[in-house]
């Protein structure tokens, strides 16, 4: 595979020498399969070969340890060569992990590592939380534990008192003025304290000590766009490039099904039922699979993307990236960037909530204004409770006027 990138025999011989020499063809094939451009792949292969030459002089044919890697990176300074070398070595470690000594985490580096690992398992297997919810709870737990270690060094968690808990809560609440953030912070502390008692780390469940923070969910209107604005953003997307075709399919699917960011990224090719005109949505926030209607325009955009624009890679995921490594969209930020970019191109400046959820809010608001049954909207959005969907009734001013009581003393 190296011959695809390099032609000179001397260069090929140098690339295939050193501790990583036998793996270079595999690494080259991996870079090609992930869609890296030829120039980028050549750069990474050259960086790996230089490191392999350095490692041969320091460890011979033995597995490469972290010390060798750190010494080599220090020779490169702090500029772009070091950045390219770090990325290149990440590729090498991923393709040929056996050539590197596996790093062993030291408990001294993180005294709470074992506890947080156990807490994560509890959140997953006992509480049944999804990965994103677990990440938030783990971050809140880590902040609480760090506060305790700093304020009370050397003390065991078994000595934790109600006074400690209240002081920690006061500290966390002082870091933010947003209702949602403050509510989440106290909820995370409450969950950790319950776990400490459940797992036997503390003789008492201190979670009831954590005060409730006020959070009026229905006090504000949900951010939304008018349907004409949503329609304008979709119509402004051309079909000149594969990225345009993909982005148009994404916005149409978000705008017509109300699908969440994570649900969109989890969609697979087999989840589209073309004959029935439906999209099967798995791994939902409410832990209930559901079916959303696939409108004709959205179906046509999806078919155009799959047949004409979707990268030809071995992946079951419906939507893929176009930059290397080509593959599934793993994180929420890229989808949010796509939505924000397309809104800006149509002259709309998105606010704080400007990603997939903005289109979800806009669809729900439009359906309410069309006087669609609230339980029908709840089923489409995948809400477990009708109270969640009731948030959108607030924006239906014409319907609210119909049920408003006459003002005492007003005109008949």
User: Strand order within the widest sheet?
Assistant: 1-2-3
Query: What fraction of residues sit in β-strands?
Result: under 5%
- The number of distinct helices, counting runs of at least 4 residues, comes to 18
Which segments are poorly predicted (pLDDT under 50) over 5 or more consecutive residues? none
Biggest sheet character: 3 strands, antiparallel
User: What oligomeric state is this?
Assistant: single chain
The helix-and-strand class reads mainly alpha
Q: Percent of residues in helical segments?
A: 40-55%
Number of strands: 3
Q: Mind telling me the C-alpha Rg?
A: 27 Å
Euclidean distance between termini CA atoms:
85 Å
What is the helix/strand order? Answer: HHHHHHHHHHHHEEEHHHHHH
Mean pLDDT: 87
Backbone shape? flat
Give an account of the 3D structure.
The protein has a three-stranded antiparallel β-sheet. The chain has 18 helices and three strands. The chain is mainly alpha-helical. The termini are far apart. Helix 11 (242-257) packs antiparallel against helix 13 and helix 11 (242-257) packs across helix 15. The protein is flat. It is 54% helix and 2% strand.
List the helices and strands and how they pair.
Blueprint: H1 9-15, H2 24-33, H3 38-59, H4 66-74, H5 80-95, H6 113-126, H7 131-151, H8 162-173, H9 179-198, H10 227-235, H11 242-257, H12 261-266, E1 272-273, E2 278-281, E3 290-293, H13 296-309, H14 332-345, H15 356-369, H16 374-381, H17 386-389, H18 397-403
Antiparallel strand pairs: 1-2, 2-3
């Amino acid at each position: 595979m190296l011959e695809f990138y390099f032609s000179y025999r001397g260069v090929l011989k140098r690339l295939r020498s050193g501790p990583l020499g036998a793996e270079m063809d595999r690494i080259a094939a991996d870079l090609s399969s992930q869609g890296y451009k030829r120039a980028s792949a050549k750069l990474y292969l050259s960086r790996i070969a230089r490191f392999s030459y350095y490692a041969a002089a320091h460890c011979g044919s033995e597995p490469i340890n972290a010390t060798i890697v750190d010494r080599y990176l220090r020779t490169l300074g702090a500029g772009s060569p070091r950045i390219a070398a770090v990325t290149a070595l990440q590729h090498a470690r991923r393709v040929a992990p056996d050539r590197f000594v596996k790093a062993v985490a030291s408990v001294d580096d993180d005294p709470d590592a074992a506890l947080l690992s156990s807490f994560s398992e509890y959140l997953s297997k006992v509480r049944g939380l999804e990965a994103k919810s677990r990440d938030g709870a783990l971050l809140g737990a880590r902040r609480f534990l760090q506060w305790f270690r700093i304020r009370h060094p050397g003390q065991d968690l078994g000595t934790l008192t109600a006074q400690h808990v209240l002081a920690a809560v006061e500290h966390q609440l002082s870091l933010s003025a947003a209702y949602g953030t403050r509510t989440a912070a106290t909820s995370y502390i409450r969950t950790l304290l319950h776990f400490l008692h459940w797992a036997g780390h503390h003789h008492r469940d201190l979670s009831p000590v954590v005060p409730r923070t006020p959070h009026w969910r229905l006090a504000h209107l949900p951010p939304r766009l008018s349907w004409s604005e949503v329609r304008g953003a979709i119509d402004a997307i051309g079909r000149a490039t594969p990225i345009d075709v993909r982005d148009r399919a994404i916005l149409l699917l978000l705008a017509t099904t109300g699908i969440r960011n994570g649900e969109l990224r989890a969609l697979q090719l087999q989840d589209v039922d073309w004959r029935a005109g439906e999209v099967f949505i798995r791994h939902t926030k409410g832990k209930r699979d559901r079916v959303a209607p696939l409108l004709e325009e959205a179906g046509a955009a999806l078919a155009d993307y799959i047949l004409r624009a979707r990268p030809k890679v071995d992946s079951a995921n419906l939507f893929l990236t176009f930059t290397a490594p080509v593959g599934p969209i793993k994180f929420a930020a890229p989808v949010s960037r796509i939505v924000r970019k397309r809104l800006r191109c149509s002259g709309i400046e998105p606010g704080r909530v400007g990603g997939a959820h903005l289109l979800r809010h806009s669809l729900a608001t439009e359906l309410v204004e069309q006087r669609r049954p609230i339980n029908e909207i709840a089923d489409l959005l995948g809400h477990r409770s009708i109270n969640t969907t009731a948030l959108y009734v607030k924006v239906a001013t014409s319907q609210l006027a119909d049920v408003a009581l006459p003002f005492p003393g007003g005109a008949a």
